[in-house]
Amino acid sequence: MATIELKNVVKKFGEKYAVKPMNMTINDGEFVVLLGPSGCGKTTTLRMISGLETVSSGNIYLNGRDVTWAHPSNRDIAYVFQFYALYPHLTVWQNIAFTLQAQSVKKDEIERRVKDVATLLKIKHLFKRHPGRLSGGDQQRVALARALVRRPTAFLMDEPLGALDADFRETMRSEIKHLHITQKATTVYVTHDQIEAMAMGDRIVVMSDAAIQQIGTPAEVYHDPANLFVANFIGSPGMNLVKGHYRAGKLNLPGGGVYTPSDIWKTRIEKQLGDDQDVILGFRPEAAWVVTQDQLSAEVFLVEMNGSNMMLDLHLSDQVIIRVRANRGVNYSIGSRINFDLDPQMVRFFNPATEAALVME
Amino acid sequence: MSELILQNISKTFGSITALDEVSFTVNDNEFFVLLGPTGAGKSTTLRVICGLEKPDSGHVIFDGEVSDDLTPADRDVAIVFQQYSLYPTMSVYDNMAFPLRAPGRKVPEDQIRKSIEQAAEKLRITHLLTRKTVQLSGGEMQRVSIGRAIVRRPRVFLMDEPLSNLDAKLRESLRAELKHLQKVEGVTTLYVTHDQIEALTMADRIGVLNRGKLIQVGTPEDIYDRPANIFVAKLVGTPRINLLAVERQNDSWNITGLEININLAGTNDLPESFMLGIRPEDVSLNPSGEYPGEIELSEPLGVETIVHIKSGTAEITCLAHGLVQLKHGDTVRFDINKNHLHYFDEQGNRI
User: Fold this and answer.
1) What ipTM is given for this predicted complex?
2) CA B64/CA B60 separation, integer angstroms
3) Do A306 and B296 touch (CB under 8 A)?
């Protein structure tokens, strides 16, 4: 059981901010994902929570207790790394039991706890093996078991699936999530992979340039991104972002197309930006659908097969490519022009100067 | 015009067979992807094509010319690796110029400048030309590596997992860029990867390799819709295809583990026991659906949600549209699209 709170936590390396003043609260039993590209400060944040890295200023609280300067071993937090860091000369059983033995836990209790986690992670048959002879997925299961067996108040995981093959990654992803559902341990999970973040997180903390860009549920960061960075980073591919010029209720787009926003959006644009202004239109690839009548039109540049669906790369103009999701089974020939319309529920607008989303109050 | 043919290539390392009678053709201007798990023989195939590895038997043929005796330099192929292998002390420009300045090439400097500028523009690295490569990000370095390969105008482009060291997001945008570039430049390309989504999205055709054997060659649609065996069916498509053991009596199927009985007329030619494959997108949630289940886990990806449904003692994966709000323990009903079923025999081969 644990809550984790960061208050104005800052990390500087020399003059450079690795983490700009950061505030967040992670609730008891919550699975929070720190998501961002490499160098955004997510791992540094995790390391500060664990105590492996000191803070430059600010405070970290664990269950309300100030642990800012507590030694990592006094924080009762388990850390799972991308690289498994198992002891190669010990068996799987010994690797899992190691920390309990070091804490002089009673022998029969060690037996029982190791067996319990191993059952949970389905690795009991591997007890006598050495880590070097296990697959990547099994090694990561052992690393998880070793963290779980301690019954820490919280888990910190640093890209634990990063080193695995795509195939394994997917399996392990649902296993870890499932484990969390049954164990309900507070978890902070770091990844650069937005799919992992969406699939696993109760809430996602999107980071870039050493700062939090948005904190929200998967649905919030997906449908209502706070700014252009989040809009582009979340989703595969990200949101289409097209700069146009708004005047008298019409949005003029590159390539000559005209989009008419809904009345409620017209009001918001005029109130928040004014009339006769540039504005960025954002919509997800699945928010556009191909229609027969003339709405917006674009030239098919590339057709990508994605398995269950297709992705069309469309040239709105020479410079502007948008990506639109389409059903399999229709043949779109490259170079042809198609018409499309946008789902009004899924259209968003952004301020080109501040890059922030227009508010939807 | 450039066409690459591999003819019955075999290669062993001691007692290990790395390649076993591998034959395929990469057509002129084609983007051919060799897809397989680690250890399938993908990199060995590339090394044989480059001339870095001599096959035990078989031939590599460029434009009708058997290349058995050609040195790597004479084969006129360019290779882009997973690791960038740029010269750290040189500028981006000099890195790109390097292959053109090689002795024996004698390309005039003004022509070098022209081709570098053209390539740089296409790869959006013009602003980086004067920088040292150590100052670049991973994505920029990989663009420079690709640029260095492009300026040579090789007859064949070989790429060995060029995107796998990059962040997920960067990988995705470079994937689209590479494909655009290949179409615009029209270079015959052989691309090696273990990532099925790269293969599906980029390839004109895919060759699936496993343990040194070429299992299937076809368009992404062929591979996805008509996988030759269970291995291929599991390798492509995410989330992975559902595979269920079936015991059949006439038109009535008993699916092991699932509380499902399927009756499908006209299935008498199927064996009495077989494996049934159902793609997750062919399972749909429906309040009045035919089959009952309970939610084990739901993974919202945004555009769709992966829903793991427990039915009986088995689990079936469903890919639902949009963000579906479901939690562990919820009861649901679902349907299976019976027009898109896959059948495999006991050896795992497609029926």
Assistant:
1) 0.85
2) 9
3) no
